[in-house]
Amino acid sequence: MRTLTATVAVLALAATAVPAAAAAQAGPPGTDGVWRVDGYGTVLVAGGGVLQKYQTTSVSCLKGDTSRRTGPGTYLTADGSVLTVRIQRDRNHALFAADSSVGHRQLRRLPALPADCARPASTDPRTAFDVFWQTFEENYPFFAAKGIDWHAVRDRYRPLVHRDTTKDQLFTILSRMVRPLYDAHVGVIDGHRRFAEVRPGTEMPSEELDAKVKKFIVARDLKDAAHRQDFGAGRITYADLTGDLGYLRISGFGGYAGENAPYTAEQAELNRALNTVLDARRTKRLKGLVIDLRVNGGGSDSLGIRIARRLTDTPYTAYAKRARNDPADPARHTRPEPVSVVPADAPRYTGPVAVLTGGSTVSAGETFTQALIDRPARTVRIGQPTQGVFSDVLMRNLPDGLVFGLPDEEYLTRTGRTFDGTGIPPQLTEPVLTKEEFAKNRDSAFDRAVNLLSGRG
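Given the sequence above, the corresponding structure tokens read:
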């Protein structure tokens, strides 16, 4: 997922010092200077060859990570993503983007770095608690939908924290605070120890689950398939089924090119897979395509959009993206930005598609599913609802070294609907990889998809 395990942190930057005060005082005419990001509780300082991130709330400002300047308004993160800052209508407004994400963030120039950002952070555990609570208070969009009184949560847990509270104890307290959210994009990290909670009745994707399901599908569903191929370190599988049908399994939107590979390498590997699978001959021959996302741990939304571009001849809007933009008012957001699907300049398949989903379809697996809802050609979802987490994850540090993450965005359909919490529902409901299905060597969702695309049901 684009979270604490497998996902994209759009502002995951390298750790390098930055002369923030000097950059602010210089007031250069280009993109250098101090910028506040609309929404996201973030201040950026560009100057001295780096882009420095500050994590802000109304009670705190903590120095985050940095990225290295590679060109005018262009920066490289530690994980290989390219960030850009581009002046918009005047020198005081700019757009911020990451190549591994979709959409843009609006920047507004500040005259100087906020004073709180120049003060050393307190290491008192009570301060860490307050920063944690306030970050959720100002950014989390879904308290009302989930029936959580966040102020009551503070009143319950704040008295448990005192000057001598250990980091281990604080980790436990913070984890208990957010557990009732059942939000897979909410997590707390202490070194190798991580807390995250999925929607009840679902299972978080893992390497073990992925391997188990893939072995089952290859043995049962693909036993008579032809031209089975793996791409992207095994995260993409394609096979030709009988009856001129195709099967495309995607277990993540990233991790294709090896550990710590830059986004450009991930994109290149995906392109290689798509160019092999969706070549001119096969796109003309296929009568139906099954896309299996039932175990998908997420990753980069932009990779999902790249696949959607190979599945249409007509431009359309995948979704619109917005973020909370008022610390005191959860109902106020940034202006929704449409994310478009533009037909790729390559062979495209535009016939019927059956998308298999379930509770282990997470994050970018869900935004890709959402990107296919308004696909102009026939598209049907089969299985169970997805996990229900869509936002990029806002990663935050605490002074004692704990790290946490939370969502602050919504992905809207053309009618303004979101699927956070509940997940995207299937149009045709079938069991998905249950114990009973495994025990009886049955794959109801796959069989339903094949029968439907074959015209048998």
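The two ends are 34 Å apart (CA to CA). Try to locate this feature in the token string yourself.
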